[in-house]
Amino acid sequence: MYQIKRVKIGKTKQLEELAHACGEVYTATLVSFWRTVRKKGIWLKPKHLMRWHSSNTLHAHTADACVQSFFASLKSWRERRKTDPTAKPPRRRKWYFRIEYKRSAMRMKDGKLLLSNGKGNEPLVLDWPWTMPQTLVIRWTGTEYEAIATYEPCFLPVPENGDKIAGIDLGEIHMAVSHDGEQTYILNGRLLRSKRQYRNKLLARLQKKIDAKKKGSRRRKRLVRSKQKQLKKLANQIKTIEHQSTSRLISTLQKDGVQTLAIGDVRAIRQDLDVGSKNNQKLHQWSFGSLRHKLTYKAERVGMVVEIQEESYTSKTCPVCGKRRKSPVQGRNFCCTNKACGWKGHRDLVGACNIRYKYRGEMGIPHVVGADMAAPIGLRFMPHIGVARKEEMYLREAAGLRDHAEKSLNTL
Ligand SMILES: [Zn+2]
């Protein structure tokens, strides 16, 4: 896993020319590869075509990258056609193509990144207040160019206190709840849910309007465009919330020294389950797949191990005495049905706690839970503050919540 930095760099004549030069190398590769297949029946290798095609306006390794891109898509087609008979090989010629710079073509100077385009050509200069990346790819986003820098992943030294495991329960109301044996963190998902609800309403309202217009009319076209624009905005907001929340959870867990994540497997929930049209819609729009993916790659990026844990009965079992409830939990609080135990607590905490136990093979046996079970800390998403201030506010918020939780525990 690599770390990635994206920077928008606008549109200049130099970038256009470079992208076109890359397109030329790519197209030349494509044409001569298929021509050789057709006429001689030989599948050439990347090294042959790299020697064959180069460009006077590109760094040698940048031209090589275009050739390699062609072979990468060729390879993925050969992989895909094993299962998908409709898969098509790369055949399209490209006028523009992405520009890739390898480490050998980079130099840093006074906060600028100098990207060489070969001897005798102007280098490409970018403002770069960060360190030098491993590779840099420049691609067209539809409105401007974007530089995508890749860095080696940074692995933190593993703390000595053994393997710390956090169980993660994905939910609809709380995006994710984690429990690492000491602390519980909750990612609240209500904001995300409100965005999704608004999306459904908006879609219904606009679609009704669109359907009332004549097909092919100007009014209709305008409405369709407006719908797409608004939906795109919402989709971006949802993406941001998911990204920022998951990043926060992972960085918090990393600070606490967690090395293994056991994520509850909720893939089976949606199959053959009918809970009425309203709740069905909720369940089907619950994006746990993308959440799990984001949590997984973000955790792996900082050197954690991620495991998927089967999660049956984790929400029904008492984390203290280990007795399994017969009926599902009603409401937001868990009540143990074992009279001798009678433990009460937050419902989502129970899930995360039991997923962790299950991963360690300890579910269903009594646990001593005292100071262990600290009150959960909510990690909230705050969209309107800058990143640096955000971190500070989050810390203060967490400290305040912890105080508050301790006070309320004492009064119980
Ligand atoms: Zn109990």
From TrEMBL:
InterPro entries per record: Cas12f1-like_TNB (IPR010095), RNA-guided_DNA_endo/Transpos (IPR051399), Transposase (IPR001959)
Keyword DNA-binding: yes
BP GO terms, sorted: DNA recombination; transposition
Probable transposase IS891/IS1136/IS1341 domain residues: 158-268
Keywords: DNA recombination, DNA-binding, Transposition
A Gene Ontology molecular function term of the record: DNA binding
Cas12f1-like TNB domain sequence ranges: 288-355
Keyword DNA-binding applies: yes
One Pfam match: OrfB_IS605
Superkingdom of source: Bacteria
Annotated family: In the N-terminal section; belongs to the transposase 2 family.
NCBIfam families membership: guided_TnpB (NF040570), IS200/IS605 family accessory protein TnpB-like domain (TIGR01766)
The protein's name: Transposase, IS605 OrfB family
Organism whose genome encodes this protein: Ktedonobacter racemifer DSM 44963
